[in-house]
Amino acid sequence: METIYDFTLPKGYIDKDGELHRNGKMRLATAGDEISATKDPRVLANPSYLTIVVLSKVITEIEGVMAITPTLVERLFTADLAFLQDMYQKINDIEPPKVQAICPDCGKSFEVPLNFTSEG
């Protein structure tokens, strides 16, 4: 079973020296990752920060970067954050929410997955 996945950020992380970093690795999340993230004071103060903390735990490497921290994840471009959120959902087999839709032409009902982090 594969537990670590390579990625290439669409835009890339630019460090304080102006150097661009795009390649990295993400591991599968554990229950402990998500539980400990919910106890983080930043998440308790702002629940939307949960994504930042969880990603900082499961991203194991970004080439040329010493440590992956929540502050580093905060500094990513929104396109890169969306990419990493989508990757996290895919590798951890998290089902996106679905909504019932009705075809305007034939009237047939069907389910459509909602994916807030990528096109199509």
Write the layout of secondary structure elements.
Layout: E1 4-14, E2 20-27, H1 31-38, H2 41-45, H3 50-58, E3 59-62, H4 70-74, H5 78-91, E4 98-102, E5 109-113
Antiparallel strand pairs: 1-2, 2-3, 4-5
What radius of gyration results from the CA coordinates? 17 Å
Average pLDDT rating: 90
* Shape by Cα distribution: globular
* Domains, number: 1
Based on helices, strands and strand pairing, what is the structural class? alpha+beta
Q: Span from first to last CA? A: 27 Å
| Poorly predicted regions | none
Instruction: Please give the count of helices.
Output: 5
What does this structure look like?
The chain is an alpha+beta fold. The chain has one domain. It is built from five helices and five strands, in the order ββαααβααββ. The chain has helices at residues 31-38, 41-45, 50-58, 70-74, 78-91, and strands spanning 4-14, 20-27, 59-62, 98-102, 109-113. Strands 1-2-3 form a three-stranded antiparallel beta sheet. It has a two-stranded antiparallel ribbon with strand order 4-5. The radius of gyration is 17 Å and the shape is globular. The protein starts with a strand and ends in a 7-residue tail after the last strand.
